[in-house]
């Protein structure tokens, strides 16, 4: 297996209250098959051998399905490989002597806890507004893994892809139309509090590991209009 040398600039931040900065680490034995998280593992092995504090980062299944991991690689949420979670981002595009920049998912709604680890409480608060177990089932039905990359990739910090996927799948889980309206209204209100507005730029679908479609963005407006302007004598027609 061929190996090559990389210089990796990693964001180090001791706590939310303290400032952070990049620290450079040399990795002489990176390989094309290695993932971004495995690259961090290699750096941590070096740090632990030297008696230094390892880099803290969010880790999970390493199969690209749990949504727990998430870093920004060279300015792109998760990494340059389209529609792949951080744990599935391989180093095949890098060459000997290249420099890699790894930092947390960047969004005002995702404050840094330590180093590369962020607090995704905003996602949980929006799901809680839709009744947490039901909202999580809706997200699972829609294929969303709640990684937050859509928020971090958006210049506005919008969670529209996350919220739209939830709202698209919530209606069949409501016992009646009144519950649907109430639940969707709470979700939309919570999303407006936690996230920025959507400008339909589509950056979110470029980084989404689940490959969620851009059409899901429209579900937020559809549910809002359905609640705001119900038809007399019956329900508003379902969106096509």
Automatic annotation (TrEMBL):
Alphabetical GO biological process terms: aerobic respiration; respiratory electron transport chain
SUPFAM superfamilies named among the record's database cross-references: 2Fe-2S ferredoxin-like, alpha-helical ferredoxin
Stated name of the protein: Succinate dehydrogenase
Top-level taxon: Bacteria
Gene3D superfamilies to which the protein is assigned, alphabetical: 3.10.20.30, Alpha-helical ferredoxin
Domain 4Fe-4S ferredoxin-type as annotated: residue spans: 136-164
Cofactor(s), by name: [3Fe-4S] cluster; [2Fe-2S] cluster
A molecular function GO annotation: electron transfer activity
Metal-binding as UniProt keyword: yes
One of the Pfam families matching this protein, by short name: Fer2_3
Species assigned in the record: Kocuria rosea subsp. polaris
InterPro entries: 2Fe-2S_ferredoxin-like_sf, 4Fe4S_Fe-S-bd, 4Fe4S_Fe_S_CS, Beta-grasp_dom_sf, Helical_ferredxn, SDH/FRD_Iron-Sulfur, Succ_DH/fum_Rdtase_N
Family: Belongs to the succinate dehydrogenase/fumarate reductase iron-sulfur protein family.
Keyword vocabulary terms for this entry: Iron, Iron-sulfur, Metal-binding
């Amino acid at each position: 297996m061929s190996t090559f040398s990389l210089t990796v600039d990693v964001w180090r931040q001791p706590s939310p209250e303290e400032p952070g900065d990049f620290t450079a680490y040399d990795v002489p034995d990176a390989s094309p098959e290695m993932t971004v998280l495995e690259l961090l593992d290699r750096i941590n092995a070096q740090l632990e051998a030297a008696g230094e504090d390892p880099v803290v980062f969010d880790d999970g299944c390493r199969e690209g399905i749990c949504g727990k991991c998430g870093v920004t690689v060279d300015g792109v949420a998760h990494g340059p490989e389209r529609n792949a979670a951080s744990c599935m981002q391989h180093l095949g595009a890098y060459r000997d002597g290249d420099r890699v920049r790894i930092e947390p998912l960047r969004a005002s709604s995702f404050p840094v806890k330590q180093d590369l680890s962020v607090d995704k409480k905003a996602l949980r608060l929006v799901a809680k507004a839709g009744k947490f177990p039901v909202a999580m089932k809706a997200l699972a039905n829609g294929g969303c893994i709640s990684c937050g990359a859509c928020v971090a990739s958006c210049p506005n910090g919008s969670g529209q892809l996350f919220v739209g996927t939830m709202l698209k799948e919530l209606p069949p889980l409501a016992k009646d139309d009144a519950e649907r309206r109430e639940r969707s209204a709470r979700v939309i209100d919570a999303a407006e509090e936690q996230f920025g507005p959507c400008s339909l730029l589509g950056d979110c679908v470029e980084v989404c590991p689940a490959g969620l479609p851009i059409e899901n963005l429209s579900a937020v407006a559809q549910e809002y209009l359905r609640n705001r302007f119900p038809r007399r004598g019956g329900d508003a027609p379902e969106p096509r």
